[in-house]
Batch of 4 targets.
Target 1
Amino acid sequence: MPVITTIDDLKRIHKRRAPKMFYDYAESGSWTEQTFRENTSDFDQIRLRQRVAVDMSDRTTKSQMIGQDVAMPVALAPVGLTGMQCADGEIKAARAAEKFGVPFTLSTMSICSIEDVAENTKNPFWFQLYVMRDEEFVDNIIARAKNAGCSALVLTLDLQILGQRHKDLKNGLTAPPKLTIPTMVNLSTKWRWGLGMLGTKRRTFGNIVGHAKNVGDTRKLSSWTAEQFEPKLDWGMIAKLKEKWGGKLILKGILDVEDAQKAVQIGADAIIVSNHGGRQLDGALSAIRMLPSIIAAVGDQVEVHMDSGIRSGQDVLKALALGAKGVYIGRSYIYGLGAMGELGVTKSLEVIHKELDLTMALCGRRDVTTLDREVLLIPQDFEGKWQP
Ligand code: GLV
């Protein structure tokens, strides 16, 4: 068993063990990948204040997200095709999250279905919805999420049309993989992954195959989005969906103050400041750079969460200190899953938790819920002067 001390360690093993097309799918941004890169490099610009001779005993990372107790305010983000990184991946990730005491969010574009995850876990999880053109499908999936006891609906707003990721086109991404010669050559070196896949029936989009109509190639994410996702989604439709769901609603993909204000008017319980991990609008600002202005505008009216770029506990601390009440990790746990299944997801949570706890102590703090900008050193031009 290799000694894992960082998320990067898990990433290296993930790259070795998972088929190239799925590793590349996770590790891509859209077009030039500028936003994807800046999501992480902008975190590096913020520095921390070292404080000494303060009581560092009895520390806690416990907090709440949308009123739910969490062992640390770090949820697992919805990630498409998770069950292709490792057999039954969503079930494994949900179990790791449940044992750790953090929320798990299941993607509409998952391999394991809502029902699969519910049957194999005890605690309620969150369900992420992509709005489809087929209203009956949407009503039905909302009802399925309610029946499964999901405790929040995470409505994604920034992917009604798919941003182009060059690698997915070049690799011919499908779930399950289409057996072309390059893919077969690559799969022949991934025996651990292959054995897992032989042992499961869950190998395509479990939430939608058999539930949605009129799709050309049901194995392709690009066909689903182009043929099914509703490009007309607007605030009026969001308000109706909120009513249909009737429970806690989190709006994901907010990167603009005006949109954050609209989310408040709709009555969202939380918003996620996010650019979809740099996978959608390439050229958009990083989520961490947008966070302060969104917090300043609506932070006292709605719970503000963030994702996109978190690869360490130090990153978590920076986002919380800027005012986020919670963050989400996507790639950081997918690396763990692709590396070593449920154990790897647990490992990624442990790595991040330990980094968060120790970093907080070295900043002279004992409680994540009291973190504020006082622990940070922020360059004066961090947010930048951008003109519309
Ligand atoms: C889907 O959520 C994707 O970013 O591919």
Target 2
Amino acid sequence: MSETTTLRSLLIDELRDVYHAERQLVKALPKLAKAATSEELREAVESHLAETEEQVSRLEKAFELLNEPAKAKVCAGMQGIVEEAADLIREEEEGAALDAALIASAQRAEHYEIAAYGTLKAWAEALGESDVAELLSATLDEEKAADEKLSALAEAGINEAATAGEEEDDDEEAEDAASSSKGKQTEGGTGAAARGAAGGRSTSSGSGAGRSAQGGQSRGGRSGSSK
Ligand code: FE
Ligand code: ZN
Ligand code: FE
């Protein structure tokens, strides 16, 4: 097997993974939107849902360009992120704190996607598949914009609103509360770290470890669909 064959099969494999991830999000985002209290947050999630549906189509187009059936392979990473968000929605009452936690969950999903698409785009470019790379690049830009939008919403007041209910506590108690459940955001998630998420461009580090997640389960190969 030549180097080229190997990278190509990696590309196909990871496209199947992210195809599954996006389709999970198409199902999960409406639940997240419904659980949001902030109108702005709900609108941001709904508009990203529309983008996500388009991203699914872009992946189908990429499979087509590569002459491969559009098959999904279970993305355990996104499954975990989606499950944690579902737990939050189940366990927390609607309100500012849940909104802050929903943003944290959504940003985990965005960062995961940014890492995936950054790698996929680099692989497609390395393989000379420039049309595929362009599709992936368009999606990567949307994921980054979605992430920044979420940071902006958090910074514009959702985090502050989430702490408002805790004002009667004295400082030490508030610190304790922060380390327990009520969805208080750590500085990393929404602020600096989120902004710095440049997109996993690395070719080597991204690929190895996750590979063991056995998959091969193909769901709904809507192969020939084009737009
Ligand atoms: Fe996406
Ligand atoms: Zn995955
Ligand atoms: Fe996304």
Target 3
Amino acid sequence: MSENLTLEQIQNFEGKYPKQLWYLFLVEMWERFCFYGMRGVLTIFMADQILGLSLSDKEANLKYGAIQAFVYAFTFIGGIFADKILGFKKSLVFGALVMILGNFIIAFSPQEFFYFGITLSIIGTGFFKPNISSMVGDLYKEGDPRRDAGFGLFYSGINIGALLGGSVCVYLGTSPDYGWSYAFLSAGIVMVIGLITFMITKKSLGPIGDSPLSGLSSSKRNSKEILVFLGSLLSIPLIFMMIKNTDYTDYFMYTIGPLAIFYFLYETIKEKELKAQKKLIAAFIFILFSVVFWAFFEQSGGSLALFAKDNLHHNLLFFEINPNIVNNTSNSLFVIIFSPILGLVWLAMAKKKIEPNTVIKFGLGFLFLALAFYVFYYTKFFADANGVSSLNIFTLAYFVITFGELCLSPIGLSIMTKLSPKRLSGMMMGMWFLASAYGQYAAGLLGAGMSSPDENASLITKLQGYTDGYYQLAIYALIAGLLLILISPLVKKLMQEVK
Ligand code: GLN
């Protein structure tokens, strides 16, 4: 790969997708394999009484929530450092190395080094995750109608990685022939493949993701970079402590959000140009709505998993399957199939000039979410006398929710890159993921509210509790969708020429 491409050359690509998108697709696919692989084994490893951390189910769930929240919260910090000092490329390489180290350390002795390794995974993901998405955005010129479709394809890559990682690592971790070390080892090895893929292909990105400090002398730049690396090392004990004691998670979540908002306001005021400020506020509105979306959507890892475990038959169409497998994989499978297709639909609509703009797509996302939760609620009417219901209807709900996700999640990544000024694009992408952290956090609270306080309650009582909860979520999602459509003229005004 000897080309020295300019930004102009990259962005003037022909066809539907730039070739660099495929490279970033692969790198992100491997990173998500590592991330979702680690995430897939997390709770079961922590709750394993013999070879794991011997935590109670409740403690394991709390820690799982805390780790998830920290991972996504650190993307905000990773995004800022990429914007100000490292640039996306260096940030990504640093993040990948730290993630690799984290997984290898856990693999060496899971019971002994888990907390230390997972702390590294949190820091590494923070430096990696937002910045690869920002680079996808940089492949496109302002106003290029192919951008949303590009993010749609990228999103398939995310889910291929998620599906493979979730299944391979859980298989290795829980198999008597292998065990937890192999799960973490495989996540680490795959991340090495991702990093190598990036190192081989990064030249094709030309100036995209280069250091924002290229104007400075290399010694000044180096010392700033070293400070970032040192700062990350210094934060290890702090994160370590906060994961060990989940009481701190609440304090952390109460603090990081308001701090992020203050910092956002500071940068928005500093932006000076009113047009850019308005766009940032529009981005902020999308971020706020996404918190609500993820809080509902992430029931999948919590209340829906328990619902699947207890209240569903094991028949899907003509074959038998464990409902938890459906709960864990159907969404990714639907995304992999439908994300590129929907991307092509957006492209075809753009050609005919009838593509809905982002606000309407977000609104649609909530309407699909509402419909999906209505279908989850509707499983109640298919239940037998024991409170066990139809897996087919449950899977149908996952089919519907996937379209909601596809109208919001890849579109959200795309709109962050459209609305952010170049100097703040990492931070805004980080804020987008910070919203996911809050979504995850709220999802746990919502799920806990729905589950019956009595572990031994009958399946009928459990069914009643969950489906009533899903009905309420359907109503709130509907209200959020309608509200978004109602305020769409205002948001469109803020967005100005951005679609
Ligand atoms: N599933 C997507 C990913 O892993 C979106 C995650 C999120 O924003 N909550 O990238």
Target 4
Amino acid sequence: MKTPVTVLGLGAMGTALARAFLAADHPTTVWNRTPGRSPELDTLGATRATTAAEAIAASPLVVVCLLVDATVRSTLDGLDLTGKTVANLTNGTPAQARDTATWAAKAGAAYLDGGIMAVPAMIGGPAAFIFYSGAPDAFERHQADLAAMARPEYVGSDPGLAALHDIALLSAMYGMFGGAQHALALAGSEKVSAVRFTEDFLLPWLTAMLGSLPRIAKDLDEGPEPGAAGSNLGMQAAAYDNLIDTSVGQGVDPALLAPMGELLRKAVAAGHSDEDLAALIPLLRAGG
Ligand code: NDP
């Protein structure tokens, strides 16, 4: 028999996680604060617990997917977690993950913190993955069980590391979408078709530009190759004013773009004119 699992929280994501366990033939116990949520899980064979305590008692692996960290603590506080592995997939910060790990250890549980890199429709499919950090033995014990939801990616025993990876990827996503939304606002200011602009130009352009990321990463890990900057920061800082001026001229708020311009100017002032984009990252790490 496959490992019995419990899923606490049947929002959009928790429901998808429970469905994935059921599809992989895990005996699955579910609990949600508001009773009766996601009734399709009953038809699929889930056991519905009436309290969180009853749900936790049913399985060695307890997957938690609630709204925010405070919800996790208010739901689990005072319950018996002795001998359980808690995989908390609720979105949170590295500091929250470390606090919750300390709290879970006191409550007798092995703790894994997780960061879900997927939307509910992707759960159980090939593109979804979940970062895990925390108790290495608990990860090893349950890796195959966790794989029912999404490809598990263990990133270290410091419980904060999964949230760090998750938040870093979300930061990249929001930065990218912010830039894309600004581009669409600019194109739209002259009634350029959003569909044609996106399919013919925006997507291919972003895809081509993303190809430079591995080189930026290599520069960071190994130091920049002398004279390798094809697009030096001095040139980029000088051209950046055109982005701001065009936005203002077209009636588009430059607020999303302005901070990058300031960072470019700061890099040039600090003597990095001949380097390329990797030189911005130490400035960000120094707090800007
Ligand atoms: P939903 O808003 O759909 O569901 C929220 C869940 O939290 C519900 O089960 C709700 O219960 C429960 N909840 C809220 N407040 C409390 C409380 N005070 N006590 C007990 N339970 C409570 O959110 P999702 O399912 O989409 O998201 C869940 C987690 O997954 C979040 O941390 C989110 O950031 C993360 N996530 C979500 C993704 C997505 O695309 N949906 C993607 C990646 C991560 P009730 O039904 O009673 O309100």
